Amino acid sequence: MLRLALRSARVPRTAGPHVRLLAWRAVPTCHEGTRTLVTKSPAETKPASPKARPHRGSTSAADRTSIAAEHDHRVIGQAQALFTFHSDVSPGSVFLLPHGTRIAQRIFDTLRAGYRFYGFDEVMTPLIYKKTLWETSGHWQNYADDMFIVTDRVHLDSLTRHAANWERGGQATEDNGSTGGPGLLSATYQSSCCGDVTAEALNAIPGGGPDEILGLKPMNCPGHCLLFNERPRSYRELPLRLADFSPLHRNENNGSLSGLTRVRKFHQDDGHIFCRPDQIAEEMAHALTFLDRIYELLAFPDYQLTLSTRPTDKYIGELAEWDQAERALEEALERTGRPWTLKPGDGAFYGPKIDVMVRDALGRAHQTATIQLDFQLPRRFGLSYNGEAPLADMATTTTTTTASESTTPSATVTKHTPVIIHRAILGSLERMLAILIEHYAGKWPFWLSPRQAKVIPVGGGDKFLPYAQQVQRWLAHPATYQSPPSSASENGPSQEVSSRATDNHATGAHFDPARLAEHFYIDVEADTQRSLNRMVREAQLAQYNFILVVGEKEATNRTVSVRARDGKQMGTLTIAECIALFRDLQARHQ
């Protein structure tokens, strides 16, 4: 038996005047059974990458602790100004700072390119849905403990008042008015509703009907089912592939929140494939190929695959359907040629899944990507497509179509139930960001780096700062750079060009989105009153991939003196050569 703990939190006025959040948490009344991990085709443990584990020979507890401190994403994230938290007002929700957002956007840009290549259409869906949708999907019955429940202030007062009355042994009564002022919970009610409230009590509370209770979405699949059902579908349209990057919320306990690895608000590269049963094998192959390419780019070539099967308690659907789905995933895993492990009973309540595990700097395993096969959700939402028989299907009902549905008038076709493949290549962006921070120990490869280069002007105080700012503009947006004629290169830039301000507002530069799509993250050292060695050292500690020194010679010849993060001198490059270098590194994901 499960008892629901009802907790309330006042929403700041800045969030809007109409909503409050209720967090529902399942409290087990008996001990849960343990699960046994059965290993099938075990993989030999390997470090994810030499970059990820530079101290992989260390074995002592002291060494591991030292490595953990060096690689801790929370420490590096603060040092590099990547993210922050404000747990006093938004526990478990990360604030990505500009440099952290740069990394996230690079990852999403790469994923979006892959989604387009594999035929996905990106959609944007709501964050909040009525309770009725979650009941249809089965999440209310099987996942409500991990959801945030949303209602307006009036119904929040009603809910908490009647819940407290029920727990004191009384019966839920009709609401006779607000206590403690409109939209405000009295201390008595706040205290009362912190105790355990049974599901029976919640269902009996007036004002708690499906029109007043909504859920903050923990996943996108129900919303995508609504999009599939927008109009009748033909078998010729399938597979329909939808991608969604909107934020999700799951109610993690306060005690389990930990940096970026366990948060309440997160982003997924969430995708759903609606396909025919005869398309499952090909779609699974594409999903695993896409996954393999992304993890190769992220320097996790030795990721581990696991198959999680039907839970022993909470699941929906028939055993025969589960068996068929599990066999389909087994076959897909076997075709990869990679070793994989079996985790009995660890699947989602609606279907089995393939999980991807990567290892951090200490060799700790983290679950990231997920691919799930689902025969249940399409049936719960009544999804169907028209197809000429025979087409193998789990459940088929025969109907007579109109002449417009077939080339033959009064032709008989069948309505088939599609299969859904749920897949997220990264899993949680926030968790993947934490893993990557520790994987690279903050030394980002150029293509992911939030600080790709820094331009340092030297000589004559601020005399060459305008040229440094011009270099920053050229390199940040290569499309704005035009190679000068040889004579101009010899004589240097005009005073007008070299003295422009770094702010594009001041230059009157024309904003052309098509030309500015390609960009690099370039900064300029504005405090030039220090020694060159000190400015270079600070740039190295900040993990800039390249340090570009410019002075009188470079300004005259339109060049930059380049040194790498590790101190290696790369000589003098023209602006065009520097752009070519950056483009090559970006294209090769180096």
TrEMBL record:
Its main location: mitochondrion. This is threonine--tRNA ligase. Its EC number is 6.1.1.3. Signal peptide: none annotated. The keyword Aminoacyl-tRNA synthetase applies. Keywords: Aminoacyl-tRNA synthetase, ATP-binding, Ligase, Mitochondrion, Nucleotide-binding, Protein biosynthesis, Transit peptide. It catalyses: tRNA(Thr) + L-threonine + ATP = L-threonyl-tRNA(Thr) + AMP + diphosphate + H(+).
